[in-house]
Amino acid sequence: MTKAPMSNNKKLMIYLVCGCIGMFGFGFALVPLYNVMCKQLGINGHSSNLPEKYKRELVVDKSRNIRVEFVTQIHPGLPYDFGAITKEVTVHPGELAHAQFYAKNNSNHLIVSQAIPSISPGQGTLYFHKTECFCFTQQPLKPQTKADLPVVFFIDPALPKEIHTITLSYTLYDVTKAVLAVHPEVAKQIES
Amino acid sequence: MTTLNPEMSATINSTSHEHHHMPPRGMMRWLKTTNHKDIGTLYLWFSFIMFLIGGCMAMLIRVELFEPGKVILDPNLFNQMTTVHGLIMVFGAVMPAFTGLANWLIPLMIGAPDMALPRMNNWSFWILPFAFSILLSTLFMPGGGPNFGWTFYAPLSTHYSSDSTALFVFSIHIMGISSIMGAMNVIVTIFNLRAPGMKWMNLPLFVWTWLITAFLLIAVMPVLAGVVTMVLTDKFFGTSFFDAAGGGDPVMFQHIFWFFGHPEVYIMILPAFGIISSIIPAFSRKKLFGYSSMVYATVSIAVLSFIVWGHHMFTTGMPLFSELFFMYCTMIIAVPTGVKVFNWVATMWRGSLSFEPPMLFAIAFVILFTIGGFSGLMLAITPADFQYHNTYFVVAHFHYVLVTGAVFAIMAAAYYWLPKWTGHMYSFKLANWHFWCSVISVNVLFFPMHFLGLAGMPRRIPDYALQFANLNKIVSLGGFAFGLSQLLFFALVIKCIRGGESAPAKPWDGAEGLEWTLPSPPPYHSFTTPPEVE
Ligand SMILES: [Cu+2]
Q: Which GO cellular component terms are attached (chain A) (predicted)?
């Protein structure tokens, strides 16, 4: 019990401390891991914010009718009206379709907003493609003005058979502060 | 020799009598102590004080819920009470109590002179009071303390919380560091300081369960530290881990939190399994039935705990295959847990039972913990969980496993080893009063919550619909009775420390283990010469 256990203690402690640091890192590694998994499996309904090209060679599957519903939400605190003009459309997989939304800034200053799309059921995410969407960019909106916001999309004919209805939901967030942090020149626009 | 350096003093044993002196007196003894028994005592008292503080918050919650409508608490204060009650009970009462028991008992049980890393031991205790002072002080700050539930889901803790969240995060960090240091000490002690001849499969089960708990702590406390750090940077430094507007995902918070959270619930119950596995054989006067199956069951519960976190998130819109995966994995845990319950019952079967206070609490544990386990199984069924989710049924479930599970086991442990710790027998009469008051009131308190939950009463809401009024009144009355009963325990412990009939080295005739070979109370340095184990 003189020297030997002390050095054993030290050795074991080194392993344990490394284990702790490793697990702390693992906690953070879960973030990219989660995002990659969700993206690959298309399971958290995280729809893309990037445009996708319509593939002309797609065969429109006339035998299937998919109901697409549109839902909107405003992040609390954002003085906007935001809604879907097109409440729902029925499409065949493979064909291009349009939907119309609107947003109105009810405040007396310029606000930059960002819409985040989300698909339900999550399993449909991988098959729902937007070629045009107001969610691809941040939308500045002048005080008391209204904007029409279009979406063009198509559904991949490979959509699993058990899915008959897809809901596309947009949540509108206020990103003015974040934009100002990167582009301070926008502040002038807001004041004017 | 000074007591500052017991790892040295322990090495110079039979030749020197000097270090058998009594510890220095006064505050400094406790502040500077590196003695495992002193630190164990500090942990246990700290935990008891936290139990009373968290208990007072529970009483306030039950007063508010005594009648529909506002009684005494504003909704925001009510939310702070439920949040801080949970945090205090989990991190302040149950976990430090188990660490205290580990400190007191593991060296005695494995024939060691002290814990392996005594100075770290001192630190791991003394940072705890700071952590909880910080946490409690936030309640008195403008904007109030944490009000987002002990699970601090984003965006509640990021978007909608008060500025004191920074202090909440800081205090969680300190608690985490404290439990990690405690866990490391336990592992190093068990690996390196076992008495010669003590093989792995001879370890007392309390030592085994604590060893596995310590590994769980090291695996998941850093993940908790990570997730609170993300909350901190999301709230104050503009990151968007959990903010959808910035590309994050609030559901990811739940994944990371429950990756910590589910092993955490086993951290709070595995040492309890060890305690019960020591007490039931002692008062059945039989060897524990199925020792090795107990060890394997504990290991498999610990391993499975890492792949079941999703059962807390069935209603988040997970894909069907993950719901099924988490449902089946969760239900598989019932198998090793069932093995344990079976073994305890089989130990009692045809034993010559006697019903001293520790045994009463142990039997109550087996029955009531099993009820908590059953409601857990109900919650594990995905479609059923859609109904039970976020209702009082969940509250009933985790209070059965934590109060009549973990807390009852801690009380059983206190009654079992109190004569060893203090050198005095305690009053059985008072202990029996404490037991019967507790066991009746705790069921009046928690059992009706099942029905409230099934009828649809949501948790964490300061008000409720009129049809829930009668049951809530009963629950509150049970709560007050249970709270008051714990004062009996406090009185009993004080009385026992002050004096009483002196306890023999082994006050329970059926007890087994090295701790009973030492006099009661044991000498300041436990085993200065390692005992021989056949
Ligand atoms: Cu769980």
A: plasma membrane
Q: What's the CA gap between B127 and B73, in Å, rounded?
A: 31
For residue B180, the model assigns a pLDDT of 96
Q: What is the CA radius of gyration of chain A?
A: 24
CA distance B338 to B331: 11
* Ligand 1 centroid to residue B312 C-alpha, Å: 6
Reported as a pLDDT band with limits 50, 70 and 90, residue A190 is: low
Alpha carbon of B283: minimum distance to chain A alpha carbons (Å): 36
Residue A60 confidence (pLDDT) above 70: yes
Domain definitions of chain B by residue range: 33-517
Are A27 and B249 inside 8 Å of each other by CB? no
Which letter, b or e, does each residue of B186-223 get, where b requires 16 or more Cβ atoms within 10 Å of its Cβ?
Answer: bbbbbebbbbeebeeeebbbbbbbbbbbbbbbbbbbbb
Amino acid of residue B180 = I
Q: How far apart are CA B162 and CA B169, in angstroms?
A: 12
Q: A52-191 has which fold?
A: Ctag/Cox11 (Pfam 04442) (2.60.370)
Cα B122 to chain centroid distance, Å, stands at 20
Average pLDDT, chain A: 84
Whether residue B219 and residue A23 make contact (CB cut-off 8 A), yes or no, is yes
Indicate the Cα dihedral angle B442, B443, B449, B454, nearest 10°.
Answer: 160
Cα four-point dihedral sign A116, A121, A122, A128: negative
From the list B130, B106, B115, the residue with the least C-alpha distance to B178 is B130
Question: What pLDDT sits at residue B18?
Answer: 43
Distance in angstroms (rounded) separating the CA atoms of residues B352 and B397? 33
Residues of A in contact with B224 (CB under 8 A): 27
Of A12, A75, A173, the CB nearest to B191: A12
Write out the catalytic residue numbers of B.
85, 114, 150, 178-179, 262, 264, 266, 277, 311-312, 337, 340, 459
Q: What pLDDT, on the 0 to 100 scale, is given for residue B268?
A: 96
Tokens representing A104 are 């109105």
Residue B8: per-residue pLDDT: 42
Q: Is the peptide bond before B155 cis (omega within 30 degrees of 0)?
A: yes
For the domain B33-517, what is the CATH superfamily, name and number? Cytochrome c oxidase-like, subunit I domain (1.20.210.10)
A-chain residue closest to B183, CA distance: A16
User: Token pair 């329970």 is at which residue?
Assistant: B508
Residue B182 C-alpha to ligand 1 middle, in angstroms?
23
Task: With cut-offs at 50, 70 and 90, classify the pLDDT of residue A122.
Answer: confident
Q: Which of B116, B218, B318 minimises the CB distance to A9?
A: B116
Predicted confidence (pLDDT) per residue in A29-43, tens digit = 999 988 888 877 767
- 10-residue mean pLDDT profile of chain B (534 residues): values are 40 43 72 91 96 96 95 93 96 96 95 91 95 96 92 91 94 96 96 90 94 96 96 90 82 94 96 97 95 96 95 88 93 96 96 95 97 95 94 97 96 96 95 97 97 95 94 96 96 92 92 91 84 75
| Nearest CB to B245; choose among A5, A114, A121 | A114
CB neighbour class for B527 (10 Å; exposed up to 12, middle 13-18, buried from 19): buried
CA of B399 relative to ligand 1 center, distance in Å: 14
Please report, for residues B431, B466, B507, B514, the alpha-carbon distance to residue B496 in angstroms, rounded to integers and kept in the order given: 11, 46, 14, 23
Residue B443 one-letter amino acid:
N
Q: Is A71 helix (H, G, I), strand (E, B) or coil?
A: strand
Main-chain phi, psi angles of B194, to 5 degrees: -65, 145
CA distance B244 to B221: 26
- Of B416, B414, B436, nearest in space to B359 by CA: B416
